[in-house]
Amino acid sequence: MPQRKSPTERQKRLGTELHRMREAAGVTAEAVASAIGVDRGKVSNIEKGVRTISTDRLRSWAALCGCSDETYIGALAEMARPSSRGWWERYRSALPGGFLDISEMEAHAVGLRTAHTVHIPGLLQTVDHARTIFKAAIPPLPQREFELRLVHRLERQQILTRDDGPSLYSVIHEAALRMQFGGRSIARAQLEHLLRMSELSHVTVRVMPVESGIFPGAGQSLVYAEGPVPRLDTVQTDSTHGPEFLHEESQLAKYRAHLEWMERLSLTPEDSRTFIRNLAGQL
Question: Which stretches make up the HTH cro/C1-type domain (predicted)?
Answer without folding.
Answer: 18-73
